[in-house]
Amino acid sequence: MIRRQRWLGPAMFMPAIVYIVALVGVPFVMAFLYSVSDAKVGSVSYHFVGLQNFVSILHNPAFRRALQNSFVFTITSQVLVLIGANILALSLKEAFPGRRFFRFLILLPWVAPVSIGSLGWKWILDSLYSVISWVLVRFHLVNQYDTPMWLGEPKLAMMSVILVHTWHMLPFATVILLAGLTAIPKDIPEAAAVDGAGFFRTTFQITIPMMLPIINVAVLFGAIFTFTDMTVIYILTRGGPYDTTQVIPTEAFFAGILGSDLAEGAAISIFLVPLLVIAAYFVLRSAHRAEVT
Amino acid sequence: MSKKSGEEITRRKFVKVTGGGIAAAGLTSAFLFPTRALAQQKTLKIVQWSHFVPGYDKWFDNVFTKEWGAKHNTNVIVDHIAIGEINARAAAEVAAQKGHDLFMFLAPPAAYEKQVIDHREIVEHVKAKHGSPIELAVRSTYNPKTKKFFAFSDSFVPDPGNYRQDLWSQVGFPHGPDTWQDLLTGAKRIKDDPKLGNPCGLGLSQELDTNMATRACLWSFGGSEQDQNGNPSLSSKNTVEAVKFFRDLFKQTETAEVFSWDPSSNNRGILAGKLSYVQNAISVTRSAEKDNPEMSKQIQLRPALKGPVRRIASEHVMSCYVVWEFAENKEGAKQFLADLIDDFGNAFKGSEFYNFPCFPKTVPNLKEQLANDPKAVPANKYAVLGDAMNWSTNVGFPGYATAPIDEIFNTFVIPTMFAKAARDEMSPEDAVKAADAEVRRIFAKWK
After folding, report:
1. Most buried of A275, B10, B157, B440, CB within 10 angstroms?
2. Is B73 left (phi over 0), alpha (psi -120 to 50) or beta?
3. Which one of A128, A157, A257 has the shortest CB-CB distance to B87?
4. What is the pLDDT of residues B368-386, one digit of tens each?
5. Interface predicted TM-score of the whole assembly (ipTM), two decimals
6. Which CATH superfamily is domain A62-247+273-292 in?
7. CB contact under 8 A, A242 and B416
């Protein structure tokens, strides 16, 4: 019996280990090996070149811009997600007619594949058929021949990709915060109310501080996901106009797959790994704190 | 007298019975074990894009490959993928060392040279039968340093100008622009006319059509990414002049939408009646004929625009087939390509004149066909493409299409250079300098 128990645990754990090793560990090791080689898509041999690829990408203005954009894209979208998810979670916590339906609606952007959602937004923001521009023209807010180019002006394009990404990430953060919110014992806000605390004081001095560990989890997961995702930007702008919305994952794809330089693509893609490892450390620490709480 | 226990078996009867038995046994086993019966049948796996002209895929999938498969006792499997998936799919097949026998690229795949067979054998075979391929095809598939044909090209697609005749007639250009200067002058008049106001539609985005249009301008002004010996040569007075010209063209005739385009945006723009001029393959006019006959009458074609140095444009699409080194049916793949060229006359018709032959003799009456198109209004609308081979060239002009040229093309270095200057984010001189540095960095990597 004891012998069986000794094997049962590892056996149950094995699928997860195999999954992580095969789909995360091996590609990561290969990316690292590629990044210090001269591998191209058509290579038949491997040559170690040290840090040459990293030096090369640092001389590339497009990479430096992508690096900067990655931070702008990630930080801005996560701030918006955090604000939006808090508002939504606080609203959806209270009982009201149709609450389940609204919760379902809010979950939709997360449930739908991000590529399909992004394609929908591509048409909504299209230079010719944008429904937003059409509405603005109908209300005489913009000139028919001078409508905003949502994906053609650098600032508007960055704003558009950030908002679409926020739209996609919001439900995930909302669900996490909602779970955290419902876990707060009811007697604490009730006691605060008896002591005369209003909505804002209760929210900012009791609810949010108590949810801080779980907010950290939501933000850090979101940040890592945003740093490593390319779908929204690839579909909406392909990094344009002229690289102004290029981020690290799209730059890596352009260089490594479309440009055929696997080594450079790998170097670009793992450039942020040290930073993401630190972020992952905080994710795990926050998760642990949330568990203790 | 004892009775014979049976009839005497003659030799003829023996042969009849045993022969029949063997035949029956064979048929029975073929019926019971169909896979064993088909064991001798080979398989040929092909992957290529979903053609812009659906009629071509119909002909290719349902007529040509079916007939070819029956003739060669081969099960031909054709997979179609979207244009944007081609490079990622190729990289995946190479990484796995498994996939299709024939892989079709839409641009010269020089980076895969070490993973493909030398296609010289096919080129020589077809050449002996149909004459020499056009220079554009050779420069897109041949590496002069290694003397290897890293691909085989059956066809290319010209990249003419598509203009709205009704608009251009009103501003003094009834036959559309002939030079880049005409384009600037006429398109500005159209945009500035309060009754018209249509912008010009040459893209400045990170997509295929912009890649082609900006290169046409660059070459027409005498600039190029590399010289004919394959050395980087972007930084030049001619390149700066081209960039300055395009900046003026954008400022005077276009809107910021050109920075957001994908490859189909200019098609949609001109078909919706918004744009006065686009540079694109005949998918524009074919779509108009099918969906918008009135607009179809207004959209006419022009050859490549003439610049201060030459009249030239890039091919719009370069069909480049490769046979992987790891292909399972290399011989079948080679035979298929050779036979495809034998039947190219039907391919030309099936593509509705979209695919032009790389071996011109396979369509001897090309000009006559173009001048008498049953769907075109007027019937000779496509006649201007008759000399497309004279003004179409390869990516990498005036040199060969090489791996660094492929990377420069796919990472949109040239469109970005033009776009930054057009938006005054950089001066034309600085934009050229920055792009030249990037071109040299890429060339250095591939040495």
Report:
1. B157
2. left
3. A257
4. 999 999 989 999 999 999 9
5. 0.81
6. MetI-like (1.10.3720.10)
7. yes
